[in-house]
Amino acid sequence: MLDTATQIALTARKLTLAYDSKVIIRELDLAIPQGQITTLVGPNGCGKSTLLRGMARLLKPKGGTVYLEGEAIAHLPTKELAKRLGILPQSPAAPEGLTVWELVAQGRYPHQNWLQQWSKEDELKVEAAIATTHLHEFANRPLDTLSGGQRQRAWIAMTLAQDTEILLLDEPTTYLDLAHQIEVLDLLYHLNRSAGRTIVMVLHDLNMACRYSHHLIALRDGQIKAQGLPAEIVTAEMVQQVFALQSRIILDPVSQTPLCLPISQTIKNR
Fold it and tell me: Residues in domain ABC transporter (predicted)?
């Protein structure tokens, strides 16, 4: 649980989310700590991505409310919300032929108006996002000519160019090899530490989630089964309850965070 002194960035109250008549999240209460990295973990189909979409107002709730620093996001103008909260959805799509620079520049749309379509600040934010994600050599390349990992970094750069205090990222390491996964997660950790950005992400890798998160939320069947500091909630019992998997939890010798070792009956008895 969160300390009573912890400031809250996003709150959900009795949140119910569904696709047509299929309810995925039912009457869920949730608090996302401000200035920390929160990671949603759980098995496929447990509601992680759905919850992220609900918090970003990409999916209209069937019931309940999401609050951004105390304000109901349903009542916020679209541009104001986009200046305060950025999201990278799972498997985003872009128009054919769009270059990396053009894609990243789209992150500046919320900051423009009829009187000022483009500014020097917009230019600097785009350049900084491209530099941060190490995409300078690809800036003028069409997005559809890049590898999966390079495309993912371009989408992350667009989200960074949006320059919001809160970032919601659905599987930001998708399509990335191990070295680039670490690069992206190190980048997000740096953004949190240096700029105090609140980051909420979905990860499938429990060990990476433990290593990079201040706050962990474990979901199963659309409900929260455990939440808190990774060191406090990641136990063999939690892994069994959430993932239906036997495991041993040891201390990661590098990060001093919980390290989950799955137990395979096949390997154990080989």
Answer: 10-246
